[in-house]
Amino acid sequence: MTQPTEPIRVLLADDEAMIRYGVRLILRHAEGIDVVAEAADGHAAVEEAAAHHPDVALVDIRMPVCDGPAAIAPLLALDPAPRVVMLTTFGDDDNVVRALREGAAGFLLKDEGPQELISAVRAAAAGDAVLSPGVTGTVISRMLRSGTPQGAGGALTDERIARLTGREREVLAMLGQGLSNQNIAGRLGIGVGTVKTHVGAILDKTGSASRVQAALLAHRTGLAS
């Protein structure tokens, strides 16, 4: 993955000061990442984002006053809008589903390792979906049970999948597994730029609004299995 010439600007929102401290400590030692603001609730996160223009907002899913999912819409309404990644724990699938439906770029478990956190920030800044592999299948399954994603049902789904090339189907399957562009490129032995081209074609051909919606489609059609 090509790193940006400027540091990735990160907003960290969590009501627990110790969590913020730990995440900030990890990110401050990562090359090309700069924590520019912190907040303890969703309203403050929006205010800080408006003031500091972060590229990525790491937002706790459960916070007082205004929780993570409720902060997504006002964060995405900013110009420029940050990529919003939810910080969550096991067993909070309902709120993760809510956040993804609101437009979150993905979610990351709080107990992931430092390298996973750093990679997630870089992936989000590069436009990748951030989906923790350990719970992606569970969350996707719950989203599918709670309602059919737009443009992903019945004959219409079959028609849209049929538009994809063999390679695009491979890439779609890996999107369903929560893999980043860089990981997909490594598995397929192709360049990251080529993966981005395939992802763009997949979104266009299937009518998916985002990588997360494409991941849903991959699970619904059985490609991700």
UniProtKB/TrEMBL annotation:
Enumerate the spans annotated as HTH luxR-type domain: 157-222
Q: Does the keyword Transcription regulation apply?
A: yes
Which Pfam families is this protein grouped with? Answer: GerE, Response_reg
- What are the residue boundaries of the Response regulatory domain, all occurrences included? 9-125
Q: What PROSITE patterns does the record point to?
A: HTH_LUXR_1 (PS00622), HTH_LUXR_2 (PS50043), RESPONSE_REGULATORY (PS50110)
Q: Which UniProt keywords apply?
A: DNA-binding, Phosphoprotein, Transcription, Transcription regulation
Task: Give residue numbers for the modification (4-aspartylphosphate).
Answer: 60
Name it. Response regulator transcription factor
- Which species expresses this protein natively? Streptomyces coffeae
